[in-house]
């Protein structure tokens, strides 16, 4: 019983659970979307066996229940539905009529709207175009400045305005291209700009190379222009200074030159050059420096200025070395020196302009380094080439060029003291060439001289001589014409040439920026060299020449005496030129006195020598017969000829200057010395004949003949052939000979 009951309860319990589950499933089916019903229905079959039958039963019961409800609802609303259908049937006709009207209205509306639609579409299309155009204009407004700047860049490149082109590139890169960088043409443009920069660098560097080549070719013209201007300024300033210092009575020649002055006190050369000065271009007008400025600015903008500076300085150093190389034959003509100086001046004028026109391209230290290097080379070159110069006119022109060269570069701020120091060396070279030239002049004068007193036929000839030589002799002036001056023609010529030498030496001293005292000292020293070395050497050589006889030697003594007296006039001549008083402490004296004294002593010695040589020639004619039985009764013929020669010779000494006591004493001493020397030499020669070792014996007749000859010698000595001997002084020359001869007789 209990078991049945239990089972019944369990069955009932399971039945309730199944019913509950089926209700749930049905609720899900009713509430769930049909697409999701599958899983719900599957759960029915997944349940207990035969559960789906019970579910179907349950489903049928639910359907029936819903059908009943529908039926109830339909019954409830049936009358209203019928009424509605009736109303709808009534409205059908009105609806059809309305439908027709609506269709007609729609048709007419469509017809009317079709045109509006077309116009609307046109408006829309125009609006779109307008919007696109506005957008395009906006974009073009951004692009046009870029294109304009790029076009401007192209124009600047074509017109070679590279610095402006670089500025334009900078604006394009920093301002304009970033605004429209999304466009392809801007990207291409941005990629092109670096290439253009490199192209500009190459072009500007090429222009710089052309410029450097151009100034190398034009340095000569630039230097010529600069030196011409410096010379004109120097000449004008010198002429103005002379005009200020000249007194009212203007001389024909300037104080320190022989350039004739015109009516206003300026030299004709200065006046001409002053007029030409206005027509001369400046050195900067001859060269276009824009390539340097342009290239400098370009490299500065590109941030590569240091490279440009190094390149420029390196190239200019190379050009400096080329400019400083002289031509091998430069010393042959002044044009060679002028071209050399012009090129150097042109080089440094350009560098000075670059120094002041640019900032830092070249520095003062760089130009000073270049100048010091150049100065050492210039001095070495000038020392070498000037030593080859043998023409004093060429050396003088070289000096003038060096002065103008130094003045020109000094005007540009370059130190030139070493050049002026070099001029002292060149001055020595100039003096040497002058001395050589005047040595030839003196030699020609001596060769052309007839060594006889100057004859003057009238007053005009006399004045002509004394105007060229300071000769004053009261006794000669009192004599009637025609008359003779004691010196020969070479004396006034020598005096005039010494003055010409002083003028020539003075020319070198001009424009050396030296004081009058220094110039005076230089003139006196060079004149001393002329007198003591050149003229003295010429006189010594003249005296030693074999064709110069005793008469010529006597005339040379006379000439040197007058030249000696003229030395004080030469000193006055130098004083008048330099305006330096001879009483100045450091004033150098002329050494002409010693020169002419030495020459005179040499001439005197040569007189003694030639007299002795002539005596020897006569002695060689002696032909004693030492074994003769008796004498000829008269002196030997060779001895009489010798005595006659000596008498005529000593007559020449009467022409020696004796217009005052000093000269008389001097001339007497020369004559007495010559006479005494001749007598002693004659006595010695005769003595040697008697004492000859080869002479074995002498006959009495030979002794008597020799005695006659000795007596003639003693008679000659006692006849006072030269006045001034005291007592038997001259006869004492034969005393030893007389004693030997006497001893032979006994």
Automatic annotation (TrEMBL):
Keyword Transport attached: yes
Coiled coil (residue ranges): none
GO BP terms in the entry: Golgi to plasma membrane transport; intracellular protein transport; vesicle tethering involved in exocytosis
Domain Exocyst complex subunit EXOC6/Sec15 C-terminal: start-end pairs: 419-740
Keywords in alphabetical order: Exocytosis, Transport
Keyword Transmembrane belongs to the record: no
InterPro entries: EXOC6/Sec15, EXOC6/Sec15_C, EXOC6/Sec15_C_dom1, EXOC6_Sec15_N, EXOC6PINT-1/Sec15/Tip20_C_dom2
Domain Exocyst complex component EXOC6/Sec15 N-terminal, chain residue ranges per copy: 58-227
GO CC aspect terms: exocyst; plasma membrane
A Pfam family assignment: Sec15_C
Protein family membership: Belongs to the SEC15 family.
Known role: Component of the exocyst complex involved in the docking of exocytic vesicles with fusion sites on the plasma membrane.
Entry protein name: Exocyst complex component
Source organism of this protein record: Cyprinus carpio carpio
């Amino acid at each position: 019983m209990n078991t049945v009951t239990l089972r019944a309860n369990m069955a009932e319990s399971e039945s309730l659970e199944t019913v509950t589950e089926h209700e749930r499933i049905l609720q899900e089916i009713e509430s769930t979307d049909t697409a999701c019903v599958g899983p719900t229905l599957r759960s029915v079959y997944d349940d207990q066996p035969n559960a789906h039958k019970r579910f179907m039963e349950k489903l049928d019961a639910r359907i029936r229940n819903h059908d009943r409800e529908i039926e109830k609802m339909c019954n409830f609303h049936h009358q209203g539905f019928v009424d509605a259908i009736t109303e709808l049937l009534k409205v059908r006709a009105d609806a059809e009529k309305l439908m027709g009207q609506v269709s007609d209205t729609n048709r007419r509306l469509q017809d009317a709207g079709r045109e509006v639609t077309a116009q609307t579409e046109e408006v829309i299309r125009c609006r779109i175009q307008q919007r696109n155009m506005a957008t395009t204009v906006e974009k073009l407004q951004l692009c046009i400045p870029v294109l304009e700047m790029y076009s401007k860049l192209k124009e600047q490149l074509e017109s070679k305005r590279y610095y402006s082109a670089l500025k334009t590139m900078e604006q394009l890169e920093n301002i304009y291209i970033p605004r429209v960088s999304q466009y392809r043409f801007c990207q291409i443009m941005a990629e092109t700009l670096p290439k253009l920069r490199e192209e500009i660098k190459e072009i500007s560097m090429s222009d710089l190379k052309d410029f450097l080549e151009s100034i190398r070719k034009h340095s000569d013209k630039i230097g010529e222009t600069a030196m011409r201007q410096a010379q004109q300024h120097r000449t004008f300033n010198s002429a103005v200074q002379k005009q200020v210092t000249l007194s009212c009575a203007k001389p024909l020649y300037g104080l320190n030159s022989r350039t004739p002055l015109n009516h206003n006190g300026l030299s004709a050369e200065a006046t001409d050059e002053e007029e030409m000065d206005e027509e001369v271009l400046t050195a900067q007008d001859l060269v276009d420096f824009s390539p340097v400025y342009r290239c400098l600015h370009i490299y500065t903008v590109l941030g590569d200025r240091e490279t440009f500076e190094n390149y420029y300085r390196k190239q200019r150093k190379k050009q400096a070395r080329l400019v400083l190389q002289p031509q091998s034959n430069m010393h042959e003509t002044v044009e060679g020196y002028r071209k050399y100086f012009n090129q150097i001046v042109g080089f440094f004028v350009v560098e000075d302009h670059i120094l002041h026109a640019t900032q830092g391209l070249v520095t003062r230290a760089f130009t000073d380094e270049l100048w010091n290097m150049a100065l050492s080379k210039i001095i070495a070159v000038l020392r070498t080439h000037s030593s080859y110069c043998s023409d004093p006119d060429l050396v003088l022109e070289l000096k003038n060029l060096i002065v103008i060269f130094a003045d020109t570069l000094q005007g540009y701020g370059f130190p030139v003291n070493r050049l002026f120091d070099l001029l002292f060396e060149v001055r020595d070279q100039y003096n040497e060439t002058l001395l050589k030239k005047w040595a030839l002049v003196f030699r020609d004068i001596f060769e052309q001289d007839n060594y006889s007193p100057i004859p003057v036929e009238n007053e005009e000839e006399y004045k002509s001589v004394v105007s060229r030589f300071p000769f004053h002799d009261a006794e000669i002036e009192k004599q009637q014409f025609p008359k003779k001056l004691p010196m020969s023609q070479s004396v006034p010529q020598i005096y005039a040439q010494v003055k010409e030498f002083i003028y020539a030496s003075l020319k070198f001293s001009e424009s050396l920026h030296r004081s009058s005292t220094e110039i005076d000292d230089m003139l006196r020293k060079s004149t001393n060299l002329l007198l003591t070395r050149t003229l003295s050497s010429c006189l010594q050589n003249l005296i030693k020449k074999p064709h110069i006889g005793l008469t010529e030697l006597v005339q040379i003594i006379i000439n040197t005496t007058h030249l000696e007296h003229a030395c004080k006039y030469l000193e006055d001549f130098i004083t008048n030129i330099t305006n330096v008083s001879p009483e100045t402490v450091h004033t150098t004296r002329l050494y002409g006195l010693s020169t002419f004294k030495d020459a005179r002593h040499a001439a005197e010695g040569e007189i003694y020598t030639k007299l002795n040589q002539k005596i020897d020639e006569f002695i060689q004619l002696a032909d004693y017969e030492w074994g003769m039985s008796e004498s000829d009764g008269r002196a030997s013929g060779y001895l009489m000829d010798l005595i006659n020669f000596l008498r005529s010779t000593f007559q020449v000494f009467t022409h020696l200057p004796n217009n005052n006591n000093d000269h008389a004493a001097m001339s007497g001493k020369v004559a007495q010395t010559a006479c005494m020397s001749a007598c002693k030499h004659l006595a010695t020669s005769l003595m040697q004949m008697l004492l000859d070792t080869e002479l074995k014996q002498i006959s009495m007749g030979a002794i008597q003949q020799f005695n006659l000859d000795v007596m003639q010698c003693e008679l000659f000595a006692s006849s006072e052939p030269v006045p001034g001997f005291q007592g038997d002084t001259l006869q004492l020359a034969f005393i030893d000979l007389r004693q030997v001869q006497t001893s032979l007789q006994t």
